[in-house]
Write a structure and sequence with these properties.
The chain is of the alpha+beta class. 23% of the residues lie in helices and 32% in strands. The strands form two sheets. A six-stranded mixed sheet has the order 6-10-9-8-5-7. The chain has a four-stranded antiparallel sheet with strand order 1-2-3-4.
Length: 155
């Protein structure tokens, strides 16, 4: 990966996840394996831990579990987090969606379409996915999908 490509990916991650998102996701740039589309655009970013993220056509990252874990370690709560309890843990861990009924708290800055970290109340990562509801209202809703889970911890 060229220095220009690396800087561009970090800049996009900083914009999407906040100030130090690029640093958190792409620490250890030498160990990153980037696959490209046939046109040469970056597509998948992997490391020995697994998939960090997929870089979409829209210029946004779709987190993998390894990327979610890096963001979880880098940011203090509640940033990018949706917290659930024991009742839904086994289902979300398997990769099933997180429903609003089971959300205990969420980052009030989350908007529908943002990448979200689904975390157990004890603080460990259960899944990564896309927020379907605003974070400020997730724990207020009694029905509906809060996070469309892309990858669970046991997927």
């Amino acid at each position: 990966m060229s220095d220009d490509e690396f800087r561009g990916l970090r800049r996009a991650a900083d914009y999407q996840f906040g100030g130090s998102g690029g640093t958190a996701l792409f620490a250890g740039a030498d160990a990153l394996d980037v696959t490209h589309t046939s046109s040469g655009r970056p597509r998948q970013i992997h490391t020995a831990d697994g998939r960090i993220a997929t870089y979409g056509d829209d210029g946004r990252f779709r987190l993998g579990l390894a990327g979610g874990s890096r963001l979880l370690d880098a940011f203090d709560g509640p940033r990018h987090r949706v917290v659930v309890g024991d009742e839904s843990e086994p289902f979300i861990r398997e990769g099933r969606n997180a429903f609003a009924k089971f959300v205990q708290s969420a980052d009030s800055e989350l908007r529908p379409g943002d990448e979200a970290l689904v975390v157990h109340e004890d603080g460990y990562l259960l899944a990564v996915g896309r927020a379907e509801l605003p974070g400020s209202g997730m724990d207020d809703f009694e029905t509906g999908m809060a996070v469309k889970v892309r990858q669970g911890a046991e997927d």
